[in-house]
């Protein structure tokens, strides 16, 4: 489950992390890198472009400089007076011309072709690379030169231009040979510098150009930059091509690796940061989730019982409030079923807390299986459970469920290998009949539960108004009893004699409490003993009776006085020592005091009860088992508990002659008692017939109205005579 949660978490988390962090980060990186790349590219191409244009301007300047130099060099001879003088001579000194013109121009300035034209524009003398040649050997060139506009229609005595001849191009300079600048016909000096590799090499060196070459059309591959040479007539002469310098590319080469490394480092850093962010965000979201889970758990714990996981009191109350609100709006009925386990405390005490917990869990499980999905089963605490039934059609439905719960919880539970019986009592309250207020309804279900418990357990009781009244009465009685106990006002101990089997001789008396209430008059023990037990008042009350009994016993030495002991007293710690102390202080004789206990005290905790009885007997007291036959499995106990007497309950006595088998039952009890060496007393003897039947059955002692009711101590003397 945890893993599935984790997978779910990382799936959702991964998606949102991808969308909210990774995607924007990658986008930012891409944008930054693209922008930087584009800026770099633009910078590089701008720099390259600028460099190319500058080279073009340099070429242009260089060309025009070399043309003007060309002209200046030519002029240095054309304006040279001795040349004009020599040419004007009738006989031309060819050797002089060769030395001073053709050869000199070539050697000094590298003019490859030099021509001297006569006044009719005919070639007078021609040199190539300083050597005189015949014009016929370069007839095409001579023709092209002579046809050029520069020669044909000179606008100026000295001029330069480009000329093309075949696949060659050359810089051409023409200058009139004259001593002074008088107009008229002149000899002319012409020189050519081919734009050949040698010329271009110089140019390239000066301008630092790579791969510079001339072409009349297509340049060599790899040379992109070009410069169009145009003659003064506007005729294209050819192209100068070269490999452009690319400072941008150089810059890129220089900064490229470091930029690449920077990009790589930035990318790696971003990946690292993203990873760190991923883990810390994952941790954060996981701890948020855990926090959420523990909050949910805390929330669950706040409203659920830890042991059973059932809704706790707070949640049940909440649901009940809601159900009641709905019920009042839609005229529906809501039932409250309050369940109390009958023997939880005993099971807890005898089998341990773990077994107690197991029992609670098992009960919760059974209850859950019994109710509808719309009902709420909750644990109010201890061994108290509750079922809230909303939308109830009829009370029969509720009663049926209550009965099913009693039956189910009445079945044995297996706790750590041993079987135990718990049983349950139930109180029912119904809205709107018993009220629409939650507290009121709970109170009434509680009263009904109390009634169920006090009417013998293992039952359900539905709230009735009379219960409320009896509760109120009980509360008043409890308060009055507490007040009475301050100085025993209205309280008295009366004595009822126990007779021998002939009804002639008083063999002992039983101390019985009487309460003369100021307003209510005489209240019978049956009404207030139970209240005294519930409130714990029975302890001081019982001790007072014991002290009174001791006093009476002192007044009638040798008289056996029987004192009733409540199960509540019996179970208080240090009970034996308390009885011994009281009797001793009151000057009683334990041997003449008979303590009457009921079967109820025996079944709760057999071992403990047995130990108490033994201790009491060792202290000299006699033990009588009161109301014998009304309890659970009476005969069985006789073998376990060392008592001195059994008092057959008056219901048996009074069934004599009514129920068919009553004599047989009494007879068998008497037989068993005698077999164990016990005295058998019959209570509630009212008629002679009963007396004789009991005598026939073999009883030892008799007690009943036939002989006497309980009387105040003052009248006891009269009875005993
Ligand atoms: P119990 O111990 O069984 O006492 C006998 C009861 O039967 C007495 O009722 C007595 O008046 C009544 N009784 C005796 N003979 C007859 C008869 O022939 N016919 C009828 N119908 N009743 C007869 P009482 O005094 O009302 O006491 C009721 C119960 O209250 C006692 O039953 C006893 O369990 C309890 N009780 C009385 N006094 C004390 C006391 O001081 N301490 C404790 N713990 N319980 C007491
Ligand atoms: Mg009694
Ligand atoms: Mg009795």
Question: Can you lay out the helices and strands and say which pair or pack?
Answer:
Layout: H1 2-78, H2 81-88, H3 94-109, E1 113-117, E2 123-128, E3 131-133, H4 139-147, H5 149-152, E4 158-165, E5 168-177, E6 187-194, H6 197-207, E7 210-215, E8 225-230, E9 236-243, H7 247-303, H8 313-330, E10 333-341, H9 344-351, H10 353-370, E11 376-381, E12 384-392, H11 395-410, E13 413-415, E14 418-420, E15 424-431, H12 438-454, E16 460-462, H13 465-487, E17 491-500, E18 506-517, E19 521-523, H14 525-535, H15 538-555, E20 561-564, H16 567-571, H17 575-585, E21 593-597, H18 599-604, H19 606-618, E22 622-628, H20 634-640, E23 645-648, H21 650-655, H22 662-675, E24 679-682, H23 688-697, E25 701-702, E26 711-712, H24 713-720
Parallel strand pairs: 15-16, 18-20, 20-21, 21-22, 22-23, 23-24, 24-25
Antiparallel strand pairs: 1-2, 1-6, 2-3, 4-5, 5-6, 7-9, 8-9, 10-12, 10-15, 11-12, 13-14, 17-18, 17-25, 17-26, 18-19
Helix pairs in contact: 1-7, 9-10, 10-11, 13-14
Bound molecules: ligand C2E and magnesium ion (2 copies).
């Amino acid at each position: 489950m945890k893993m599935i949660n984790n997978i779910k978490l990382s799936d959702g988390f991964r998606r949102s992390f991808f969308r909210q962090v990774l995607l924007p980060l990658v986008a930012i990186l891409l944008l930054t890198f693209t922008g930087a790349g584009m800026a770099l590219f633009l910078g590089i191409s701008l720099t390259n472009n600028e460099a190319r244009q500058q080279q073009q301007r340099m070429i242009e300047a260089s060309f025009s400089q070399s043309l003007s130099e060309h002209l200046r060099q030519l002029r240095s001879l054309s304006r040279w007076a001795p040349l004009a003088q020599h040419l004007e001579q009738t006989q031309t000194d060819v050797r002089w011309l060769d030395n001073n013109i053709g050869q000199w121009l070539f050697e000094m300035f590298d003019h490859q072709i030099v021509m001297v034209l006569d006044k009719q524009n005919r070639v007078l003398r021609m040199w190539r690379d300083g050597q005189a040649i015949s014009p016929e050997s370069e007839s095409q060139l001579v023709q092209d030169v002579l046809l050029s506009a520069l020669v044909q229609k000179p606008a100026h005595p000295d001029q330069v231009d480009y000329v093309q001849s075949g696949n060659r191009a050359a810089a051409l300079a023409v200058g009139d040979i004259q001593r002074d600048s008088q107009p008229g016909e002149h000899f002319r000096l012409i020189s050519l510098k081919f734009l050949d590799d040698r010329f271009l090499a110089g140019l390239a060196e000066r301008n630092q150009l790579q791969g510079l070459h001339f072409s009349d059309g297509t340049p060599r591959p790899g040379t992109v930059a070009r410069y169009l040479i145009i003659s003064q007539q506007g005729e294209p002469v050819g192209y100068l091509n070269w490999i452009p310098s690319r400072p941008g590319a150089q810059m890129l080469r220089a900064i490229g690796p470091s930029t690449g490394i920077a990009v790589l480092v930035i990318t790696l850093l971003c990946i690292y940061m993203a990873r760190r962010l991923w883990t810390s965000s994952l941790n954060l979201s996981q701890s948020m989730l855990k926090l959420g889970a523990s909050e949910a758990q805390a929330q669950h714990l706040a409203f659920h019982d830890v042991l059973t996981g059932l809704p706790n009191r707070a949640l049940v109350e909440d649901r009940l409030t809601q159900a009641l609100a709905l019920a009042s709006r839609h005229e529906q009925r809501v039932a409250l079923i309050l369940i109390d386990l009958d023997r939880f405390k005993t099971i807890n005490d005898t089998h341990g807390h773990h077994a107690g917990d197991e029992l609670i869990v098992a009960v919760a499980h059974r209850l859950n299986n019994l109710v509808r999905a719309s009902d709420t089963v909750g644990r109010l605490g201890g061994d108290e459970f509750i079922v809230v039934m909303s939308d109830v059609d009829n009370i029969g439905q509720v009663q049926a469920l209550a009965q099913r719960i009693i039956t189910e919880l009445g079945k044995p539970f297996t706790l750590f290998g041993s079987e135990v019986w718990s049983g349950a009592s139930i109180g029912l309250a119904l809205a709107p009949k018993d009220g629409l207020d939650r507290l009121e309804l709970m109170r009434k279900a509680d009263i009904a539960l109390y009634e169920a418990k006090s009417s013998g357990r293992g039952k359900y009781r539905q709230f009735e108004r009379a219960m409320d009244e009896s509760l109120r009465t009980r509360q008043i009685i409890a308060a009055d009893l507490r007040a009475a106990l301050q100085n025993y006002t209205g309280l008295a101990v009366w004595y009822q004699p126990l007779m021998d089997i002939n009804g002639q001789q008083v063999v002992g008396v039983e101390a019985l409490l009487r309460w003369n209430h100021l307003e209510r008059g005489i209240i019978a023990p049956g009404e207030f003993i139970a209240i005294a037990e519930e409130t714990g008042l029975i302890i001081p009350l019982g001790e007072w009776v014991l002290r009174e009994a001791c006093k009476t016993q002192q007044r009638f030495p040798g008289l056996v006085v029987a004192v009733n002991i409540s199960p509540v007293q019996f179970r208080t710690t240090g009970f034996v020592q308390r009885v011994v102390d009281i009797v001793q202080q009151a000057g009683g004789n334990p041997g003449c005091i008979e303590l009457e206990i009921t079967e109820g005290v025996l079944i709760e905790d057999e071992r403990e009860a047995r130990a108490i009885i033994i201790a009491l007997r060792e202290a000299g007291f006699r033990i009588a088992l009161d109301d014998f036959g009304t309890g659970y499995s009476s005969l069985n106990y006789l073998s376990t508990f060392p008592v001195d007497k059994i008092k057959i309950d008056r219901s048996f006595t009074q069934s004599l002659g009514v129920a068919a088998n009553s004599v047989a039952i009494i007879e068998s009890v008497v037989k068993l008692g005698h077999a164990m060496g016990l005295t058998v007393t019959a209570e509630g003897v009212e008629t002679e017939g009963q007396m004789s039947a009991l005598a026939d059955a073999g009883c030892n002692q008799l007690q009943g109205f036939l002989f006497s009711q309980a009387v105040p101590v003052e009248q006891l003397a009269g009875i005993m005579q």
